[in-house]
Design goal:
This protein has three domains: 31 residues; 79 residues, SH3 Domains (SH3 type barrels, Roll); 59 residues, SH3 type barrels (Roll), CATH 2.30.30. The longest helix is centred in the N-terminal third of the chain and has 19 residues. Helix content is 12%, strand content 36%. By secondary structure, it is mainly beta. The chain is built from two helices and 14 strands. The termini are far apart.
């Protein structure tokens, strides 16, 4: 009986310690397993800084954008669009200041971001080309706001290979939001 009570007491003490942060290294980082605490966007060698600015995408279908870098700041926006491309323009600890395709800026926790390169059409009636050539035939026509995955952006090319709802093709860099003119994506 005493053994069971001690075991239960020890279990409760560990739980309280984890919740209050007294055992910060118990599961990697605080009470989060290390795999959850570090996003794909931030998966880089220890201490290595990622370049600023850079494009990433939203990891989840519901992401809070806050007025400042922390949970004590109010939520300005709630994004409801997974894979939306955003631009990281500043960093503070585990918080990233982002800019969305419409120019809104705010702070998001790093775990809500993914390194998956996505793009968004910012013009109406854009041709997805079959090849990386201005004279190529159309694979599809894309409307403003359509999101797709960036597959490749060759060096010194005005085009990137993308996939939109299962349709592969090529877009000019200036027809989408989510890549820089100098980006090389293999």
């Amino acid at each position: 009986m005493l053994r069971r009570r001690l075991s239960l007491t020890l279990t409760i003490m560990i739980f309280i310690s984890l919740v209050s942060g007294l055992l910060p290294g118990a599961f990697g980082v605080g009470i989060l397993p290390a795999a959850l605490a570090q996003s794909e966007e931030e998966a880089s060698p220890q201490g290595a800084k990622r370049p600023l600015p850079r494009f990433v995408s939203l990891r989840n279908g519901e992401v809070n954008m806050r007025a400042g870098p922390g949970v004590r700041y109010p939520v300005d926006w709630v994004y409801l669009r997974r894979d939306l491309p955003v631009e990281v323009i500043a960093e503070f600890d585990i918080w990233r200041k982002i800019r969305d395709p419409d120019g809104a800026e705010g702070w998001v926790h790093q775990s809500m971001l993914s390194g998956r390169r996505m793009m968004m059409i910012k013009k109406d009636h854009v041709m997805l080309r079959r090849t990386a050539d201005d004279t190529a035939s159309a694979a599809a026509w894309l409307a403003n706001g359509v999101i797709g995955k960036v597959l490749q952006c060759p060096k010194d090319s005005a085009f990137c290979r993308v996939e939109v709802e299962g349709y592969p093709g090529w877009l000019r860099r200036d027809e989408m939001w989510g890549v820089y003119r100098s980006d090389v994506i293999e």
